[in-house]
Design goal:
2 domains; about 425 residues; UDP-n-acetylglucosamine1-carboxyvinyl-transferase, Chain; binds uridine-diphosphate-2(N-acetylglucosaminyl) butyric acid
Length: about 425
């Protein structure tokens, strides 16, 4: 298995570009199933999860090609196998995103039921109950979800709990339903707005995305489109923390700072000088003292759970005690034992990590357990004295495009070790 070798202690400086957002790209690829025309996607990140999503729609019969400008062209007019196999779903839970578009377009979907994962049990009951309200007939058998309908019909749906991919599945399904759907208690993440923008560019009639009430007026069919995937706010936030913990001075380009409110606000509270400039964010931590910040994760616009592990590392390097409370997933502290092996002082009390800052940490051989946990181990490696080897980095390749190259461009000493 490939590993990353990091020699810590370098202060990062320079500029890098942000890549397209994984969590914006995945629902957009799934939504391509709703149209029978060509769809061109620009700025797709080169990530394992994107490859898995292509493998999934490819296994159903989608035509996928790459043009001379590295844009992907998708055509899903000839889907013949309306099934998402367990072998793919088990490697990526976001495979559930094809459910909404398959049932809306073809009246049928068979999808392996995603199991739990490293960060929590992560059921999909909100998705299924909401789809039933649109008229889908759903049964669970032999580890699969089977959904059938003659035609989905618009409905008023109040989600039981806020769910990002659940909201996305329902927007997709309601887009081709008969009549109007009013979705309430929906997720407000920027990626929901991205999906609505994509679908509206295909002729859908969706309003309210980004607020907690979304209105979808079903249409007969959706056309092709060309769409650019927006930048990844979590990737950008991770590099900003890399700048902060190494007392660096870095700029992330091609990013929308408007989407990063809670991240920027907390970096400022931590003592960083952060300047947003239209499409870039600069962070300067040279000659500033790092102060730990209490964090509570929450749905957007709150502090993202996908930045919790990374911010924990930042808190470890500030003086004094801080608390990081995880409210979205019940088991998202797997990185903490590994961080403590490097010399951090973190104690878990229920859903709260209690952190006492330390003067320094030391390199160690550590193991990644999930995507954002791996990012936190790399951040710790950048600060640690000596060498850190991060094992199981296939987790990082799911969500960070060429991380060692981007960090090297900022002056880090980081190398991918082959198998
Ligand atoms: N939940 C239920 N029932 C459901 C759906 C969700 O109980 O039917 C619970 C979950 O178990 C969790 C909470 O509701 O406790 C929120 O889960 P949500 O459904 O919002 O998560 P998701 O849609 O599966 C997306 C991102 C995650 C991100 C979360 C929260 C994608 C592909 N994934 O997951 O991203 O952490 O929203 O913001 O968009 C990552 O990129 O590392 C990642 C895990």
């Amino acid at each position: 298995m490939e590993k990353l070798l990091i020699k810590g202690g370098k202060s990062l400086s320079g500029e890098i570009d942000c890549s397209g957002a994984k969590n914006a790209a995945l629902p957009v690829i799934a939504a391509s199933i709703l149209s029978s025309d060509d769809i061109t996607l620009k700025n797709l990140p080169y990530l394992q999860d994107i490859t898995t999503m292509f493998e999934l729609i490819g296994s159903m019969g989608a035509d996928i090609s790459l043009d001379e400008r590295m844009n992907f062209k998708l055509n899903t007019s000839n889907l013949s196998n309306l099934e998402a196999r367990y072998e793919l779903v088990k490697t990526m839970r976001a495979s559930i995103l094809v459910l909404g578009s398959m049932i809306a377009k073809y009246g049928y979907a068979k999808i392996a039921l995603p199991g739990g994962c490293a960060i929590g049990s992560r059921p999909v009951d909100y998705h299924l109950k909401a789809l039933e309200k649109l008229g889908a007939n759903i049964s669970l058998k032999n580890g699969y979800i089977e959904a059938k309908t003659d035609k989905l019909v618009g409905a008023n749906i109040e989600f039981e709990g806020v769910t990002v991919t659940g909201t996305e599945n329902l927007i997709m399904a309601a887009s081709l339903a008969k009549g109007v759907s009013i979705l309430t208690n929906v997720a407000k993440e920027p990626e929901i707005l991205d999906l609505a923008n994509f679908l509206n560019s295909m002729g859908a009639k969706i309003s309210g995305a980004g607020t907690d009430k979304i209105i979808v007026e079903g249409v007969e069919e959706l056309s092709g489109t060309t769409y650019e995937i927006p930048a990844d706010r979590i990737e950008a936030g991770t590099y900003l923390i890399a700048g902060a913990v190494t007392n660096g001075n870095i700029t992330i380009n091609k990013i929308d700072p408007e989407r990063m409110g809670a991240i920027i606000e907390n970096l400022k509270k931590a003592g960083a000088e952060v300047i947003s400039n239209g499409k870039s964010i600069s962070l300067n931590m040279t000659n500033h003292i790092l102060k730990p910040v209490n964090i509570i994760t929450a749905p957007f616009p709150g502090f993202p759970t996908d930045m919790q592990a990374q911010f924990t590392v930042l808190n470890c390097m500030g003086q004094g005690e801080s608390r990081v409370k995880e409210t979205i997933f019940e088991n998202r502290f797997m990185h903490i034992q590994e961080l403590n092996r490097m010399g951090t002082n973190i104690r878990i009390d229920g859903t709260t990590a209690i952190i006492n800052g330390v003067d320094s940490i030391s390199g160690a051989q550590v193991m990644a357990t999930d995507l954002r946990a791996s990012a936190s181990l790399i951040l710790a490696g950048l600060v640690a004295k000596g060498e850190t080897i991060v094992d199981r980095i296939y987790h990082i390749d799911r969500g960070y495009e060429r991380i060692e190259e981007k960090l090297s461009n900022l002056g880090a000493e980081i190398l991918r070790l082959p198998n």
